[in-house]
Design a protein that fits this description.
Blueprint lengths: L12 H5 L1 H5 L3 H6 L3 H11 L6 E7 L7 E6 L2 E4 L2 E4 H12 L3 E6 L4 H8 L12 H9 L7
Antiparallel strand pairs: 1-2, 1-5, 2-3, 3-4
Helix pairs in contact: 4-7
Length: 145
């Protein structure tokens, strides 16, 4: 699958206001914008032997990250599947028209990250997206196979 900027799937006003409407989007849209952080943590936990890290992408002057993804070597995993991290950064920067300010390695747990960056924890969604994320990760062959 070709890497696509997360902003392509940005939630509409009704999707932001109604968690069920947001939940009913396609998996790719849901995990691109609104639950990318949940997908990243699930990906890391899905392959515990691989040493997968987590990264937060900051563009321009935004206080909070635009996108969160899992990373392994030169690869990144998000709703577009496994792609080169450099391509993921480039398409997001180009789509938003903003330079990459920082790619932060995330060392906190999911709860701490959500509290710091005003993201929903899994139990705060219309339904817990953890199993949905596991099924999504399982669809994509990792680059080490």
């Amino acid at each position: 699958m070709v890497v696509t900027a997360s902003g392509v799937f940005r939630r509409t006003a009704i999707e932001r206001a109604d968690q069920r409407v947001s939940w009913e989007r396609t998996d790719r849209a849901f995990f691109s914008s609104g639950a990318c952080h949940v997908l990243a943590w699930v990906c890391r936990d899905f392959y515990p032997e691989q040493g997968i890290g987590l990264a937060a992408l900051y563009l321009g002057d935004f206080e909070h990250p635009l996108h969160v993804y899992a990373r392994w070597s030169a690869w990144a995993f998000d709703a577009s599947g496994w792609n080169l991290e450099s391509e993921l950064l480039q398409v997001n920067s180009e789509f938003e028209g903003l330079p990459v300010r920082e790619v932060e390695t995330i060392s906190s747990d999911l709860r701490e990250f959500c509290e710091k960056h005003v993201h929903r924890q899994p139990h705060q969604y219309w339904a817990d997206p953890t199993e949905r994320a596991r099924a999504y990760v399982a669809r994509y062959d990792p680059p080490w196979l």
